[in-house]
Write a structure and sequence with these properties.
The chain is α+β, with helices and mostly antiparallel strands. It folds into three domains: 88 residues, no CATH class; 164 residues, no CATH class; 172 residues, no CATH class. The chain has 16 helices and eleven strands. The C terminus is likely disordered.
């Protein structure tokens, strides 16, 4: 409508109480309706339009606007109204309610649609485009526009020296991927949402809203759709799939000024906070000055006071405090720092989780085969009626060492030696003894010497279970009627079979050989949880009656450079 709102709608607008002569000029149906033989507005006819007659009148009782309004129409104003009526007095909806439409564009091969629109507007105004900027200027402008930062000298030279046809497009893509792009794009929205690091008013205490600020920046960097961007900030906590990110988004509603002034009325403060939220929503999202309707129906925009307080009621459900801002601590409800969703980090973690899930779906064949072998051995042992009976250790010694060992039943802690001699009593059982099992449990607690002093743990460990490079090279055993500190090389027990709970590739249990320093030895697989064990089956079983004592010698380290244990 060509009639200026300030000149007409204050008396003939949507505010029913302020309306004169029961005439609305902001409504086409009402403005063109005949009243007692007089029609205020007749599209295309100045002569029949009563308002044009009133505009030209010199009678202070008839002229519009009236002198007491202290409003006047300039010659330019009158010219616009005259042209508007002559051209059909077309009414258009408030621009805030008109959905944007993509304009029709010609098929241009070498011209960006935006450039075409700019040039068309320049041509309509009788202007010409400025000459194309040089590459030094172009890279600076683009960097400032997209990131708010100047390009480095290296970035400038890289673009200037890049003569590929797609150099500019690649520069744009690089700047769009910069984290500073979101920071630059967020500035206008942060201003519209009245973002601040302090609460305002006289005390102006600090507050923490940077979680929401970072959410906005990330939203721009993620190219979040506008409808989602707005919905999550207005009502993210009410969405059925709400999460920490959506709760942080609603920080948009907590950007209002807060006071901690003594003597203020809490209920009044809450009203002011909510009024600020309605006003901000109208200006930043709806394109409407909703704040005008707080005290009366809007004079210009189609917003009644009832509409205003219906919107106000939505925000009046927030459970914030009436005073805040002095201690620098946000009032409840609030999102704690631990709930921050750093989208890039989450995407990285989700990608790792997806990769791990894929690995779990695809069996690790070596580990699976080792596990299957163990299960088969256990099945065979059960079929054979194998029974494991602990050996009572009597003495532990190492060659050329006076160090004592603390023995707990059938357990002891190694002290980083290469050779151990284990003397034990053969289990008192009537059944023949068909083999020997050595179990290597976790090495988590320090052992104690006979004198009660703590012994340091190994410097490094594999998967928390075994010392690094734990390789068992050889095992020898002899059984006799009398106890012996060392094995008797003339009475060595022969092993028909050697198996283990697990092994590292290249170090199977079968490589444990008596007095064979060239063997690689056995190394348990650190990836498998729990203790590791190696089982040596005797070629000829023994009995406790004929062989009450069993001496075992175990060797660690090999020709490959393995460490003692």
């Amino acid at each position: 409508m060509a009639l200026a709102p300030r000149l007409t709608l204050s008396c003939h607008g949507s505010d029913e109480k302020a309306r004169k002569a029961k005439l609305r000029l902001d409504n086409a149906a009402d403005a063109t309706r005949e009243r007692k033989g007089v029609t205020p507005l007749v599209p295309g006819s100045l002569k029949e339009s009563a308002i044009w007659e009133r505009i030209l009148s010199t009678d202070p009782e008839e002229v519009m606007p009236p002198p007491k309004s202290h409003l006047t129409l300039t010659a330019k104003d009158k010219g616009k109204i005259k042209a508007w009526i002559e051209q059909g007095a077309k009414y258009e909806d408030h621009w805030a309610f008109v959905p944007p439409k993509r304009p029709a564009l010609p098929a241009t091969k070498n011209l960006n649609p935006i450039d075409w629109l700019v040039r068309k507007k320049l041509a309509d105004e009788g202007l010409q485009a400025s000459p194309e900027a040089d590459r030094y200027t172009l890279v600076r402008r683009l960097s400032f526009d997209l990131t708010g930062l100047p390009p480095s000298a290296e970035e400038v030279e890289s673009f200037v020296q890049d003569h590929n046809p797609d150099a500019y497009a690649r520069l744009v893509d690089r700047l769009l991927k910069s984290p500073h792009f979101g920071e630059r794009m967020a500035l206008d929205w942060l201003d519209a949402a009245r973002y601040s690091d302090t609460n305002g008013f006289s005390i102006d205490g600090g507050r923490h809203l940077w979680l929401w600020r970072d959410w906005v920046i990330q939203a721009f960097n993620d190219n979040m759709p506008y409808d989602k961007f707005i919905a999550e900030q207005i009502a993210g906590d009410l969405m059925p799939d709400t999460d920490d990110g959506k709760l942080i988004a609603t920080g948009f509603q907590r950007n209002n000024m807060n006071t901690h002034e003594g003597g203020t009325i809490l209920a009044e403060n809450l009203v002011n906070y909510n009024a600020d939220r309605v006003k901000t929503l109208g200006e930043s999202v709806l394109g409407l000055t909703l704040g005008c309707a707080q005290c009366h129906d809007h004079k210009f925009d189609p917003i009644s006071q009832k509409d205003y307080y219906q919107m106000f009621a939505f925000f009046n459900t927030l459970e914030d405090r009436g005073v805040d801002g002095n201690a620098g601590v946000n009032s409840l409800p609030s999102a704690m720092r631990k709930t921050v969703l750093k989208t890039d980090e989450i995407k990285t973690l989700e990608a790792r989780l997806a990769s791990l899930r894929d690995k779990l779906r695809t069996p690790n064949q070596p580990i699976l085969s080792a596990w299957e072998n163990i299960q088969q051995l256990r099945i065979q042992e059960r079929r054979l009626g194998l029974e494991l009976i602990p050996i009572k250790l009597i003495k532990i010694s190492t060659p050329n060492s006076g160090v004592g060992f603390t023995i707990e039943g059938n357990k002891f802690m190694g002290l980083g030696k290469a050779v151990y001699d284990l003397l034990g009593e053969t289990p008192k059982t009537q059944a023949p003894i068909t083999g020997l099992r050595l179990v290597f449990p976790n090495v988590d607690e320090p052992a104690k010497t006979a004198k009660g002093k703590a012994v340091a743990k190994p410097k490094s460990k594999m998967a928390g279970d075994f010392p690094a490079n734990f390789i068992l090279t050889a095992v020898d055993a002899t059984a006799d009627k009398i106890p012996g500190d060392q094995v008797n090389i003339h009475k060595l027990i022969k092993f028909s079979r050697i198996t283990a709970s697990s092994w590292v590739e290249g170090f199977p249990a079968a490589d444990v050989r008596a007095f064979d320093v060239l063997s690689r030895g056995w190394g348990p697989d650190p990836k498998l949880e729990g203790p590791a064990h190696i089982t040596l089956t005797f070629t000829t079983p023994i009995t406790a009656e004929t062989h009450p004592y069993l001496t075992t010698q175990i060797y660690f380290g090999n020709r490959m450079g393995g460490n003692p244990s």
